[in-house]
Amino acid sequence: MSTPAAQHTPDGAVAARARGLTKAYGSGETAVIALDSVDVDIARGRFTAVMGPSGSGKSTLMHCLAGLDTVSAGQVWLGGTEITGLRDRELTRLRRDRVGFMFQSFNLIPTLTAAENITLPMDIAGRRPDERWLKQVIDTLGLRDRLRHRPAQLSGGQQQRVACARALASRPELIFADEPTGNLDSRAGREVLGFLRGAVDDLGQTVVMVTHDPGAAAHSDVVLFLADGHIEDAMERPTAEAVLEHMHLSTGGHPQTPWFDAVRGRLGDDDTDLEE
Fold it and tell me: Which parts of the sequence are annotated with region: Disordered (predicted)?
């Protein structure tokens, strides 16, 4: 059965696709089903957020779509390439050449400058960057005067901007961001989210972001809600208030559940976290 996220998306407009995607950890009676026959289309040139309580499968979904984790059953495509049938070497090359990654921990090399961190994946692959594109990315992210700095000389927000530039530098087909604002304060987090939004609107990129923050999800074009390994709903043109209300309803109207309580606490009474 198709999920709301897998309906009526033309093939040419799809950046990534999964059909019957199942991921189980363990076997037999002790097996844990993280994803249960998920069908999903990720639209090209759009910003998709993935939300759900802890254990819902949202990070597992991202890892399987990105080829970072194997699947137990089903198929995954990146563009027109089925990645579930690729050998390890082919999969490594595909991730390196066609996918960009951003993580909560930044993953910058401390001994390299910002410029060297940005071009590192292409340097490893022996590829020369497109200088015009690289300049546009660096200027869009406001990193021109930070290129010679090492990570320890940068703030958390600046480090995440470097990680964002690294993800964008090779002009990948798809960027996966796993809680990219998790280690940032509210101001720096909104700044990075604005850059991801700009990457879609101004640079034509496709972004998939896992988040638990309604304010972050409000920067996206569509939010996919996961629960118990299923995509239970999708919300177009989300606002922080609408996402928070959906989360409230998904708890059965009991706002003291751990997920709702934690997110509500994160938003607090600061309306700036609900902007945009």
Answer: 250-276
Q: Say which residues have a Cβ less than 8 Å from residue 53's Cβ, sequence separation at least 6.
A: 227, 257, 258, 259
Task: Give 104-141 pLDDT, tens digit per residue.
Answer: 888 999 999 999 999 998 998 888 989 999 998 898 88
pLDDT tens digits, residue range 8-34? 555 568 999 999 999 999 988 888 999
| Pair 91, 67: CB distance under 8 Å | yes
Give the bridge partners for 73, in sequence order: 22
Where exactly are the structural domains of the chain? Answer: 4-267
* Cα pseudo-dihedral 80, 172, 182, 147, rounded to 10: 170
Residue 185 gets the label, from left (phi > 0), alpha (psi -120 to 50) or beta, of: beta
Query: How far is 215 from 273, CA to CA, in rounded Å?
Result: 6
- For the entire predicted model, the pTM comes to 0.82
